[in-house]
Each structure stands twice: as structure tokens, then as C-alpha cells.
Amino acid sequence: MSSTSPEIQQHTFTTFKEFEEHFEYKGDRLYSMIFERNKDKIKVSKEKFAIRNLQKIFNATFLISPKIGFHAMSLRDLSAETGLSMGGLYSSISSKDAIAIIVKDVVAFICEDIVEESREQEDPMEALRVLVKGYLYASTIMQAWFNFLYFETKCLPQIDQEESKNLELAQVGELDKLISKLSPDLQACHKSGFVATMALSMIQERYLKPWKYHNAEQTVDEYADSCLQLIYRAACLEEVSPCKTVIAEV
After folding, report:
1. What is the CATH number of the domain that holds 161?
2. Which residues of the chain are modeled with pLDDT < 70?
3. Residues of the domain holding 181
4. 34 near 69, Cβ under 8 Å?
5. pTM
């Protein structure tokens, strides 16, 4: 991680509300960090103006690209939506590709921080909880960013496409390591990777289909707990909940 990146949490979170209160990657703080990490590509020298322009550009991108696709979106489309001149756009981003690369970068370092938080836990069960809920809560807050990267990875330059794919493989790998540690039998029959892949798919489901969960009765906390319980069941683990119910083996 870059030294300019803030810590995602100051302590282990338990609920979405608590996670969101300590989540640093939002508002001006997010765009200030983007500015710091991309100074060599941004011609606007004053940070406050750069932040304003970057916010407009990314908000417009997340508005336009779901309608027509990032590949079809032009800088003239961005200019019309943001109110920035073409010169204003080029002074804030070096190219259209730079937008997709920055999205990949933002998602990557958010995920890296969640992994770091998980690895700090001594208890593997707690580490798994932090990882699953961290991915889910962060992608809920940053839904547009995660969604864009998932659907528009193909628009990245080749090397960045590979980095994006490796990011997902790394997420599965972290889940797999913890599930294997908690359930050696599952690892022995080579099924821990499958459970890890399904776990990540459940997380992705929430941010890829926001229309499905926008007015859902199940809160994001309840959804997170349901994901964990399914992982525990698949791994034949004891359920961790206030009622201490033991889930039957499958």
C-alpha cells in the first residue's frame, strides 16, 4: 500500500454501521488520495480543483457507463455530463483508459486493507468473519466502483486486465486459506477452493444486483450473517452466533 493510503479501520468492526463510520475511502478523502497517487498524470496542480473535477468525472462515468457501456462512452459524453470542457477533462485525466485504471487501483487497495485487517486476527474464525464482512461492506459502500470493475475489466489495457483478474483470484485465495485452516477435511478432498469461490460469488451478488437488494427486507448485516452461515455449513463448522446453535453436518 502507498503511504498516502489511510487505514480502513482503526479497530475490528462488528456491524455495517460501525464499518461505515470508520471507512476512509469516501468523499473528498477518497479523491484527495486519488490525486496524491496520480499526481504525475494530473495537470491540475491545485488539489481542491483536482478533487472537484475528479468527483465530477467519476460520478458521470458511473452514470453513463451502465447505460451505454464504458467502451462506447466518449470524452465528449463526459464533457456534456460533467460540464467540464475537453481541456478541463484532459487536465484531470490523461485518457479515458486512466479512469478504468484508477477504478481498478481504488478497488485493489481497499481489498488489500481488508486482507491486512483479516490477517491481524489471531482466531481464524474471526479472520474469516472480517474478510467476508469487509468485502461485503466495502463493496456495498463503493458499489459503483466494484460494479464498474467487474463489468468493464475488458476495457482495461492488457496488463491491467490481468491485474484485475488476479485481484479476484487473490480474494478467493484468502478465503480458501482460512476455510482450509478451519476445515482440514475440506482441504483434503480439494473442496475448500470451491467453497471459497462460492463465498465470493455471494458477496459479488449483492453489489452486482443493487436493484435486487435496494428495498430488500434483509439488511446488509443480515445478508452478511447469512453468507457466513452458509460457509460454516459447507465447511461443517460450528455456527458463531449469540444462540450458539450448532449446524448439522452436510
Report:
1. 1.10.357.10
2. 1-11, 188, 238-250
3. 16-236
4. no
5. 0.87
